[in-house]
Amino acid sequence: MLEVTGLAVAYGGIRAVKGITFHVNAGELVALIGANGAGKTSTLKALARQLPAAGSLRYEGRELAELAPHELIRAGIALVPEGRGVFARLTVEENLDMGAYSLSGRAGRQALARGLERAYALMPRLKERRAQLAGTLSGGEQQMLAIARALMGEPRLLLLDEPSMGLAPLMVQKVFEVIREVRAAGVTVLLVEQNARLALQAADRGYVLESGEVTLADDAPRLLADPRVRAAYLGE
Amino acid sequence: MDIFIQQIINGLVLGSIYALVALGYTMVYGILGLINFAHGEVVMLGALTAYSTITGLLGLGVPLPLAALAGLAVAALLCMAVGYTVERIAYRPLRGAPRLAPLITAIGVSIVLQNGAMMVWGRNYHAFPNLVPERQYDVFGATITLLQVLTVLLAALTMAGLMLLVLRTKLGRAMRATAENPAIAQLMGVDVNRIVSLTFVLGSALAALAGLMVSANYSIAHYYMGFILGLKAFTAAVLGGIGNLAGAMVGGILLGLIESLGAGYIGDLTGGFFGSNYQDVFAFFVLIAVLVFRPSGLVGEKVAERA
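YS: structure for the whole thing
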């Protein structure tokens, strides 16, 4: 579904990503793990066309560079950015409505109703707080909202950037439950995480990024068992 | 007492006009973080275009109400085109440039528009025709004209319409989302450039209406009128909290009231030393006071400086 070849990202004189190659098959949950500054977020931003990048980014057979950034969602790609990025001065429901911005007409209205129902079923807390400004939600609730909002556009590929960052352990569990459900519903997921254990437990396959390069790539269970991963990322 | 009420009425009329113009400043600032100092000149273009259209049509024997409506329509269309073009050729190439660059550009645009208008309409003052019958009503001993009533009503309706658009429609939601975080709005599929263009076009339409109202109420139009009016509306936007729509309206009305009451009483208060020609001083006194004591404005929330 997504095939990245020789992706390089540089900004401000720093080469954040140095020609990495990876792919995501339809229906998979793939994790990109690595330490702070390994180039994980830059990779996702390049995919979302928020950073200029070199290399080939092929999505369902076409180059992403052919699309304007605002056309990605119509092509089926949604990004949940690092730090969540909810619209703090919009209400919870307005945030969700924004997620469905790309859908229009009668089909769009049906998708919006369907999406709201799904979001509220998945995260009842959001329903209770639908009229509240998103800025008043807790960090975990904002993360839930950001994921729910990204799903409103009915993407086929969901890019998740550090969904566990800054959340309490209990909330992290909940967020990962939601990610598993999303994947079970048939959405392909590319997950970037510092929490390697959780990410690999949820994922089918994983890539380890170090200083902008892919150093390991394997099935997630095997990465979890790999002594190098255990030593460097699982604190063993 | 009747002087007080008279000044309140005058202040409301002036304030509604300031509010319309201030909305243009505040919408653009909200989305781009840019102070569009050329906005006052768009008001001037609206006034002069309306003047030419209305006098031209009246000369052809077109009935007054029709000519006035046509004047408003032509002025609004021209201003919308100017607002759109200015953003495309002057501001868009500077998106992402240091903040000073677009600010200086805005001043440049303002000079271009002003001198362009001078070439078309000359340096003279133009007597603006009366648009509505000179009817007067008595309110607690003060006088209010039909024109004043219509000005306030039309401004209020327009602002209510704008608020409905911004708060209740999909487009308005996209505008608010873009104002808060353009990069994220883009991820949702919002074409940010389209929203920016639309913001300029909407603000310019309000400016055209304001231009017509100023000229109708003061019976005059000239190429230089946009400068001071623009500064005052900017003051109103800052007073309310720049970037905030409700703030622009409150700030506009308040500034109109402060100016009228100030001009009405300054003679008495200073024993005739200062006359009502010191009216303009109040606006800028307010601007300085707000910037010193409450930079976020009356309604504005304390938002960190935008990048």
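YS: worth flagging: The radius of gyration of chain B is 19 Å.
IM: good catch. Also Confidence is low (pLDDT under 50) at residues 303-307 of chain B.
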